[in-house]
Design brief:
The complex is a heterodimer.
Chain A: E1 4-7, E2 10-13, E3 18-25, E4 31-37, E5 44-50, E6 53-57, E7 64-70, E8 73-79, E9 87-94, E10 105-106, E11 110-114
Parallel strand pairs in A: 2-11
Antiparallel strand pairs in A: 1-3, 3-8, 4-5, 4-9, 5-6, 7-8, 9-10, 9-11
Chain B: E1 4-5, E2 10-14, E3 19-25, E4 32-38, E5 45-51, E6 56-58, E7 62-67, E8 72-77, E9 86-94, E10 101-104, E11 108-113
Parallel strand pairs in B: 2-11
Antiparallel strand pairs in B: 1-3, 3-8, 4-5, 4-9, 6-7, 7-8, 9-10, 9-11
The chains are: A mainly beta, B mainly beta.
């Protein structure tokens, strides 16, 4: 595997379900991100992990819970979602720090549908 | 708040012609800009970047121009091909050591007409 991978690629869930999205980066980066992409809206940054510590939480509802067990893996745990949470969820990674610019590499995304 | 926006949501270009996609940004502290391409069913893919101390950068068939005076960014694609059909996003980065953050525009859908 190369780059950034995400599983599952598609997910349909009911509002009472609990599910998790997984992201893995094979680039040796030290920062990982979750974004939400809805139709006709800019990419919305949800969470940032830098050196395995959460450094950003953009007022995301608590029904979304991120987890970063190591620098290569990132999870997004989902619980009691709403239909308006249906979107494409993108994971990205980058190498941050002195001398580095924030070129983020994206995974293919998980298309989430909440019924 | 700071924002990145695109002038046109859609653009259609005849195959073989050149295309220009524009982007306006508002954060004068941004030090790095990226253009991404997103094809249907895929995540955004890096195309080209430019640092704020430059006004032009060229890649293979693509050129990015940065005008800091009017806070404007453009992506030029030469000799367009059907595979160039996609949504193109600009993004700006404000350097804040240890807390890097990209802000994205809404995107322009480019359609190449055969």
């Amino acid at each position: 595997e190369t780059g950034v991978t995400q599983t599952p690629r598609h997910l349909v869930m009911g509002m009472t379900n609990k599910k998790s999205l997984k992201c893995e980066q094979h680039l040796g980066h030290n920062a990982m991100y979750w974004y939400k992409q809805s139709a006709k809206k800019p990419l919305e940054l949800m969470f940032v992990y830098s050196l395995e510590e959460r450094v950003e939480n953009n007022s995301v509802p608590s029904r979304f819970s991120p987890e970063c067990p190591n620098s290569s893996h990132l999870f997004l745990h989902l619980h009691t979602l709403q239909p308006e949470d249906s979107a494409l969820y993108l994971c990205a990674s980058s190498q941050v720090g002195l001398g580095n610019y924030n070129e983020q590499f994206f995974g293919p995304g998980t298309r989430l549908t909440v019924l | 708040g700071e924002s990145v926006g695109l002038h046109l949501p859609t653009l259609s270009v005849q195959e073989g012609d050149n295309s220009i996609i524009n982007c306006a940004y508002s954060n004068s502290a941004s030090d790095y800009f990226i253009w991404y391409k997103q094809e249907s069913g895929k995540g955004p893919q890096f195309i080209i970047d430019i640092r704020s101390n430059m006004d032009k950068r060229q890649g293979q068939r693509v050129t990015v121009l940065l005008n800091k005076t009017v806070k404007h960014l453009s992506l030029q694609i030469a000799a367009t091909q059907p595979g160039d059909s996609a949504v193109y996003f600009c993004a700006e980065n404000e350097s804040n050591f240890g807390n890097e953050k990209l802000t994205f525009g809404t995107g322009t859908r480019l359609t190449i007409i055969p």
